[in-house]
Amino acid sequence: MIKKILTVMAVAGVMAAQAPAQAQDAWPSKPVKVIVPGGPGSGTDTAARLATEHLTKAFGQPFVVENKPGANGMIGTEEAAKAANDGYTLLFTYAAAQVVNQSLYPNVKYDGATSFDAIAQIGAGGNMLVVPQGSPLNNLKDLIAYAKSQPANSLSYGSWGNGSGGHLSMEALKLQAGLQIQHVPYKNAAAVNTDLIGGQIPVAFTSMGSALPLVLGGKMKAIAISGPYRVPQLPNVQTMTEQGVKFDLVAWYGMFAPAGTPKAIIDKVNKELVRAVTEPASRERFVKALGLSEMPIKTPEQFAETVKTDIREWGAVIKGGNIKID
Fold first, then answer.
1. What local confidence, expressed as pLDDT, does residue 12 receive?
2. Which of 132-141, 204-213, 235-244 has the lowest mean pLDDT?
3. Which of 122, 133, 158, 279 is a Cys-bridge partner for 204, taking CB atoms 3.0 to 4.6 Å apart?
4. What is the pTM of this model?
5. Which domains does the chain possess?
């Protein structure tokens, strides 16, 4: 009798151990929510929708974008960090929200490296410094000369929020060139673009994905790119560094899961997103829509190291430049 009980207990133990593995093998068995800490029409939203379209087809379950903009991505990112780590809530975000905020804000409620498991990096590139199509400014030299000819802080520029990549890129330019220009933070890149085209602001740093179609369509003019790469679709627009203002930190998009999400799920999603950025037709869609200059292929572990490095390097830029929130 005792032997029979022990046998039943052993079988039950094996079944219990197999249950989580079977659940992971069956994932996803229902729709997956993908939180995007950017508004509709933003570069992050565009990238997320391309990624989720691919994942929906690959896994046969809807990957549903849920836009949660605000506070330079902190609202959506905080919500994702608190979500269950069962693979049914993921985060699709951008570099500034994931690796800059904790150096810039005093009370960030997540850590870009430890609150999440990195899944896959989508692209690498920069942000775009733009002016209205009819502006006489054509490059950084023109902008610097014009800004210095105006009374201090009489000129304003827009970005998609305090602490955004656009904000920090322009602050780096201001520090190196000795400019005094007022920052006007917007809730998202789409709002920045609208006001620039409408003439409410004379210059802006905006996201590549949101600005590229407008530049190619003749609605606005690009005069510089942050980061180390030119944009393939705009080969004549030089980077900030090429124009004498060193700023080589890279912007990227990426997918993450709440910390502790099963590794099998992380690896499944990574495999499909790598497929999305390597298959020629799919890769071309990302490059064209987002103006990405490079499409690095990384394992989850390699992307996690990128996140840690970027947190350190962006933090050094913020501290070294004494950059503060307006």
1. 54
2. 204-213
3. 158
4. 0.77
5. 31-124+251-320 (3.40.190.150), 128-243 (3.40.190.10)
